Amino acid sequence: MNLSHIAPDRRIAKARAQLLMTEPFFGCVAVHLEPRESPDTKTTSTNGDALFYNPDYIATLDNEELKGAIAQVVMHIAMQHHTRRGFRDAARWNRAGDLAVNPELIKRGFKLPGKPEIDPDLAGLSIEAIYARLEQQDQQNQQQQAPQQRPQGGGNNSGNAKPQPGCGEVLDAAPSHDQAAMKATEAKTQSVVRQARMMARKKEGGLSEDLERLIENMVEPKLDWREILRTFIDDRRQTDFAWTRPNRRFVPQGIYLPGQIPDGISHVVLAVDTSGSINNRALESFASEIRSALEDGSIDELTVLYADSQVKGHEKFNPNDDFDLTPVGGGGTAFAPTFEWIEEYAPDAIAVIYFTDLESTRFGQEPACPVLWAIWGDERDFDRLVDRTPFGTAIFIENS
Fold it and tell me: With CB atoms counted within 10 Å of each terminal CB, which end of the chain scores lower, N or C?
């Protein structure tokens, strides 16, 4: 159906009005977007402030498809996809975004244009987790491709047909380096989403349980795991402060703040669960934060244990050492032997941080010092795994 005889801005205005009546959450967010004709846009796109559209593309959509296209843009905004990309590949990020929002939209009854991409195995994952899986798949495809099949002239195509991008391209709200602008956009988006949620709650069936949960995660953002990790380490440490020992973390930025003077040795034990296959990306990200804590003096002494069902190896580090992890092991999982080792050989430890997928119930006795479970794996299993821990607190380590 070609509706080119009707001005696209009029059609968009009518579609938004209909959404306000039938799907108030989507309609309320949509009315905050300024429709802007953009021939450079292949379908539709958004940066959080505007709804960019190609008039020729809009003419190919029937009314239900147009509402679906607007709803997809709204979901990207509600999930803050326009503020979270960072330095990731834009094309892969957009594909991950579609895979993150399409299932909920289709479940909600929206008719999405074209052939929307769906992967049941990825349903419920965050855009970052989906991106990481897509990146891993692309890397595996490139490694499996025979050299003679690779394109000539330095091309970077994988040789396999990739899914065509759908409508609703996500544009960055601001340059990745402009954190102030990004924070302002995040705050503005949260305000809009809260208003839309309030309106939708007034209509029976205005919000599904899944959509309510997704929105809750966006308008009530959780602390980044890195902040929780550093707070956990810093809170264990008894210190005073002195200008004679400036904080090394901020010196490269030209900022001089008083450094910490320890009242005693800060000895932390890091246990790395080496059973099965370790998520190297998550481990590298996690290790970089431990390295920073060592370098800025938050940890005076670090004991690293490599353990599966038994402690298979250990290393010691201080702030002047080069810190790298060299995991050994690979058997089953049991946490009890690790805590027994700590009780015998590291009784002065002020904290234990355990990097693990938590796929074991053999916890043993609670140690004398606090425990932080740094959990990696499928984020959808996080609550289930944490519920069975008899002690300690937990954070989820993203692998991207």
Answer: N
379 secondary structure, DSSP code = G
Q: Where are the beta strands (DSSP E) in 10-168?
A: 34-37, 44-46, 50-53
What is the number of other CB atoms lying within 10 angstroms of the CB of residue 106?
Answer: 14
pLDDT by residue for the chain (400 residues), tens digit each?
Answer: 566 678 999 999 999 999 999 999 999 999 999 999 998 899 999 999 999 999 999 999 999 999 999 999 999 999 999 999 999 999 999 999 999 999 999 999 999 999 999 999 998 888 999 999 999 899 888 888 755 555 544 444 444 445 555 678 999 999 988 989 999 999 999 999 999 999 898 888 778 888 888 788 777 666 677 888 888 888 876 555 555 556 666 667 777 666 655 555 689 999 999 987 677 878 888 888 898 888 887 888 999 999 999 999 999 999 888 898 988 877 789 999 999 999 999 999 999 999 999 988 899 999 999 999 999 888 888 889 999 999 999 999 876 5
349: its two tokens: 């430890």
The model scores a pTM over 0.85: no
Structure tokens at 109: 């009854």
Total count of residues recorded for the chain: 400
CA 218 to chain centre: 12
Place of tokens 């940066």: 47
Gyration radius of the chain over CA positions? 25
- Domains of the chain by residue range: 8-153+164-219, 225-396
Chain centroid, CA 315 distance in Å: 31
Of 243, 277, 215, the residue nearest 75 (C-alpha): 215
Q: Which CATH class is domain 225-396?
A: alpha beta
